[in-house]
Amino acid sequence: MDPANLTPSNDPWLVLGKFTAARIALGRTGVSIPFRENLSFKLAHAFARDAVYTNLDIDSLIRSAPGLLVPFVLLHSRATDRAEYLQRPDLGRQLNNESLLILSQYSGSYDICINMADGLSATAINEHAIPLLSLLIPRFITGGFSVAPLCIIEQGRVAISDETGNALGAKLSLILIGERPGLSTPDSLGVYLTFQPMAGNTDHQRNCISNIGPKGLSFESATEKIYYLVSEALRLQLSGIGLKDLSGLLK
Hints:
By secondary structure, the chain is an alpha/beta fold. It contains 9 helices and 6 strands, in the order αααβαααβαβαβββα. The longest helix has 21 residues, at 122-142. The protein has a single domain (53-244), classed as Rossmann fold.
């Protein structure tokens, strides 16, 4: 179709734009994108940068945690601040000595250890972790799984859940973490699960449910998917590339 003859009613890009948050069908002014879209891009970039440097709202999480039916502990990685966390990913994967001492007081035998960590978007945890856990934890308890104290971790990365799960004596470790923000969503929540958490585990031993939030996978759908994968991981005694999501085939 001749671009000169395109109108809002017959432009195929505008139709596609209704189904994605990706930056398509922006239009143009001369050889550039419209001024409005230019400003929108800069605003989205600013939101993404802010998400990376936002802190966990510990006070709000503490106020909400008692309603989640399990006790909680506050922990910290070996990264002392945000700058060190971003420059030294290895420190974000390890608990500091004080946190290890705290966990030693709760060591036992659990099915599941649940963690939440800021990752690269504390905004995702601040806004979405409690709504998800308020559905997920009762689902686990109703399903007969024993749940370890909830670990709230500052300056943490995914692999830190290996240390918490191992220290608490859990068969499986689950971590809610803020995903790397993009230009379409700065508050996407990811969930990773690992069977037999221990130091040295690699990403091929984990399963991930990504893009949880109002603009992505709903809390209800995420709860069902996580519950299915956790149940299968404990039944089959594995996670990662050997664990497949076959829940859609069961309907």
